[in-house]
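(Protein data)
===
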Amino acid sequence: MKLISKKVTWFLLLICSFANAQMDKYTYKRELIGVSNSWNKFTLPEDIFDKVQPNLFDIRIFEISNKQDTTEAPYLIRLMEDRITSIDVDFKIINKSFNKNGYYFTFEVPLNKTINQIILDFEETNFDWKIKLEGSQNQTQWFTILNNYRILSIQNEITDYQFTKLVFPTSNYKFFRVLVKTNNKPNLSRAKISEKTVSKGTLKLYQNKKINIKENRKEKQTEIIIELFHAVPISQLKIKVKDTIDFYRSITIKYLTDSVKTEQGWKYSYTTLSTGMLNSFEKNNFDVKNKIVKKIQILIHNRDNQPLEIESIEINGFVYELVARFNKQANYFLTYGFKNANKPQYDISHFTNKIPNNLIELQLNNEQIIGRNPLVVSSPLFKSKKWLWGIMLTIILILGWFSFKMMKS
């Protein structure tokens, strides 16, 4: 009996050692400070994205009890991006008229319907018009909502650009009247009226480590290279142009995917992240697909125009929030940096409606490199796994023989 209990104890210690060793697969750890409730949250720090998989599969939270048992705490990662909803509003065009000021289009919408944008679609393909938008409850007294609002359309062999969206503060009127200030009759083919609601996410501004702007006269384009301090998830670029002239230039936003050192120097490979139009008619905010990048290339295609003077470039990204469930009082560590880790599967992903709304924000301690026991260079006791399996099989047979003998007695 003593022999059996010693072997069982040995096996239990072996299992515990494997449990404690699972954290050693990861390279980095940060202690979580302030764990007090069953549910808590914290924001992933900016410098973590340099060291994790692009899909974030290698993030874990390990719980170390007083008995040095190691288990995982389940978590969810939430991207704190904007939540946009758009509700179309029915309407009908009740008047089309004109006078010396221009051409009028009057829309009637249902009572108690609020709107904040109107998209106009004209048959004309090239125009540059000023718009006045008014609202009224009785078509007798009109109130100005927008004035000298610019819309335009440019279509030729190299450009196809249109900006005909009227964006204004949320308004509640029975009638809306659009004045197109032009001497030539505009042909309105259709319109769309809606209320757009944006629940703002949490954006973080990333500082540039280095920015380089140069003119490629051969390609007739401005090349901008931006290097960040860390690889971070970016979601939006804001470009501010110093020039006050009217302009519209196509733009390509790329990110670095590979680099190779050759005898002629470094060769960089970039992949397109987004395209758009840099112009003087609207805010030059470019939303891009959320991507973890460290180096960005922006190409402004000038064609035969003079290059624009860039005043500033802002790079923003929506933050990642991690929500975790903690079972007991213990020491908790955020670990990461394991290229072969698979995506974790936790039950809480199916019960997100059970997560409380008000969560306590945790703090993260400084990053530490997870220590590994130094390897002792010596010949192994058993060079072949067959010997190890043979010994395990022998132990199992001995345990079975003792058990059979005890049952027989």
In short: Residues 21-80+326-369 form one domain. The longest helix spans residues 385-408. The chain has a mean pLDDT of 88. The longest strand covers residues 221-241.
